[in-house]
Design a protein that fits this description.
The chain is built from eight helices and two strands, in the order E-E-H-H-H-H-H-H-H-H. The protein is mainly alpha-helical. It is globular. A hairpin with a 5-residue loop joins strand 1 and strand 2. Helix 1 packs across helix 6 and helix 4 packs across helix 5. It has a two-stranded antiparallel ribbon.
Length: about 210
């Protein structure tokens, strides 16, 4: 809605003329629109925060389940603390197929178990806390892409259900989104983390 203010004058011929003096939008409407925009941004930030917490918990739960054998994807007798091999169990299984199978067989070792578990724990904790999201995005995306290639989804009759985009790719993209949007600032420790001197000097730690 626009308000127009007019004034009237008479031309030399005596015919009234009407001229627009001002044209403006009511301040109340502008304030209302700005309030709506702010509320929408707030909702978006809260949704990103929920996505961050959920994504972080996925990685943290993977660590906990494989470490203690909570019985969901890892039975108790195959728990890491019971002598199980979290990464080797996957890398040496029939679930790994395709031309890169030899590479993943070569990678499988006690060291890969430790690195994999530390990766799951570090990514899960960092993402849930909202700190180190850039590092988490790089490390997490690398792990997800490696697992994606290990299952070699481009052939039929594999464990993957989609030849191009499966949950590994979605997780990787989500980690990138969270880092790019500074999702740790809402319901997280992103702001105080950013103010630390070491983080200020090394932005890649954000």
């Amino acid at each position: 809605m626009t308000i127009r203010t007019y004034f009237t004058r008479r031309a030399p011929s005596g015919t009234p003329e009407r001229t627009v003096l001002t044209e403006s939008t009511p301040p109340l409407r502008v304030a209302h629109t700005q309030g709506e925009d702010k509320a929408s941004r707030g909702k978006g930030l809260h949704i990103l925060a929920l996505l961050r917490l959920a994504t972080g918990f996925i990685f943290l739960w993977a660590f906990l389940d494989k470490t203690f054998g909570l019985g969901f994807s890892t039975p108790a007798d195959r728990a890491w603390v019971a002598g199980g091999t979290p990464s080797q169990g996957f890398l040496l299984s029939d679930g790994v197929t395709g031309p890169l199978k030899g590479l993943f067989t070569l990678i499988a070792s006690p060291a890969s178990d430790i690195l994999f578990q530390l990766g799951m724990l570090g990514i899960g904790m960092a993402v849930m806390l909202g700190i180190g999201l850039r590092v988490s995005a790089v490390v997490g995306s690398f792990l997800m892409v490696m697992m994606y290639l290990a299952e070699w989804p481009f052939a039929a009759n594999t464990t993957s259900t989609n030849p191009l985009v499966d949950y590994h790719i979605i997780y990787a993209l989500t980690l990138v989104l969270l880092a790019a949007s500074s999702a740790g600032d809402t319901w997280g420790a992103g702001r105080p983390w950013r103010k630390l001197p070491i983080v200020h000097r090394r932005p890649w730690l954000l």
